[in-house]
């Protein structure tokens, strides 16, 4: 019996809204239809398991096909199918209330997932690309009659007898003119690879050519021939669905290469598997990131029952772990998930906390089990650990036990170990323990050597996150502060007793200051004459610790630090009044020679920090040749 009717959506203009506002995400129509086909297939398998279906299940492969000439895309399954009554119930009635409010609320929406997820419109995403949709279906139920449903994108439909001979459903989309880009083999393959690569039921799309062995040649070597085989686009049992005790390291590495073909092997991985108080499986890999701080983000793929959702997992994965790679799969996150859902859902927050704990536990376990191996990985792992300790209080509490500090000698220490190491020699007169650090050991070598002469230890803090990590450590460690090794001359870095007295008289000190100010002639350099050890350099150029740190943070995107980043660099020029070079300058025959010697000493200090370039460097070299 043929029947016509009106789809129960309570408003005439719902379809134009679906088409208009879903346009930017129109490729998800294929994900929705294939996911529905897989659900129908799994349901018939479940019914057979429960003894509620006794027929032959047969080949359960879901097939996607297209016809460029007829301008159609078809998704076919051999699942439970539907009766005509079920079609009317599930397809014709889009059940939601307040249609007028809905239309007004979502007419300008940008998030396609939000509308689909909120109102169960997965099937109707077909009308994003189709001007007509046909359904041919036959229910698994004994004695069921095949049914056909047709809709042209308006609220009117036709339903009547169908001609499908086997259990399941076939949905045919008649593609509209605006969407003919989808009538392309490679485009469809790309979408299926993106969303359906790990679905639990085989998905066939077209065929592919494979080379198979075909006997031996005269020399006994194998011969090969090309054959056409089904192109099954998915792996039905991906690695994260298996138990860790079934898997070897090789399996995890092969899966990583499947996900990221061009990447280096990861350092290690964490297999996630929890079923209470939420369901979650997955594998997270620690990649070799070194200093490519922003380059590796959005590498974690979020799935729901093996259907790909998104690789923007900011609200599910803690911010500091966004640099990890891998897969997270949770049925507790709906397939059609919006950003607003992720931000407010309680399960998502629990998942976030769980992942933080699992990562901290794994790192702690690696540290305890093989400290030497952990130290070897620290250059890569340290970025995650430091970022986590800054951004997550719970992670800091665990991380402080395995976070490592590395010194310029290449030795590693935990926070407690390092405090113990330097406490005796690097505590100032106010009882503050001073950690000295270098951001560029090669460039700051002269300062490091001066510090080492006083038996001071110097840390290496040269990762992109270290300027922020330093501030965080000062907040957390009691009576401890950190100073960059070139923030002052070695005698002044850790203030203890009064240092050496300046042997110059007050008039000589004033004269030296004036000579150097004239030689430098730059208001960004302030000159001070100090009493330092005669073994120290005659001129030392430093930037005050606070200003240097603010500028470092501004460079790595520190919030509110842009003001400091825009300020011109200002330096302190410390003249060692006890050095023989200063004595030589004072004894020079005339003011011109004094200025020339002072300029030479200043340029040497600039050169030692890599700050001399261009015309100034050329003049320095010429002056040096003249003075030899």
From TrEMBL:
CDD domains: HATPase_Hsp90-like. Keywords: ATP-binding, Chaperone, Nucleotide-binding. Belongs to the heat shock protein 90 family. This is Molecular chaperone HtpG. It comes from Echinicola jeungdonensis.
